[in-house]
Amino acid sequence: MSRSRVTAVAVTIGLVAAAAVSLGAGRHSSPTPASRAFSWLQPAPPPPGWNVARSTAGALAYPPGWTPIKTDPGTVSVALLGSAGPIDAYLNATPRQGTETLANWIRFRPAHNKGEGNRDVRLIASSANLNFRSGRGSCVIDDYTTPRARYREIACLVAGPTSSAVIVAAAPTALWDQQVVTLERAVSSFVP
Question: How far lies 126's CA from each of 42, 52, 141, 150, in Å?
């Protein structure tokens, strides 16, 4: 092989290797699909005019027009009631009560939903080590069917400085696109 040909081959191999390293670096630095699913999570105070319900679970912000509903002691729940009575969207904050942890949340929550009698539980996205206003959290987005409807939820376990709590933001899947921005905003403003 001539010297110029060997040089050309070496340059070509070098360029291919450099391109592979560059592409690999880009792949590792870009967000994963799970983290993109939670890119809306931007910890911030609630929007002006929102109400804040407090319990031992934390501070749950919700927009005007939503109604507090009866819950278990220590929890807080609010709902957007439909004109005919069914719930169009739902927010709940509950103190951590069981064996859920930030490390096992991604498996725990879908199993919990199944244990509650929900059917066809489908995990859509999950992520851990997410920032909240006063702590870190692990979250899932999943769908499930109850006897009344099919729901989609955002469910996060958030560990604050002194306590951990679960926030759930849910809506019937038929209304999800109408409610998702409000639900995401409520989750982003949650403080355990």
Answer: 16, 27, 6, 19
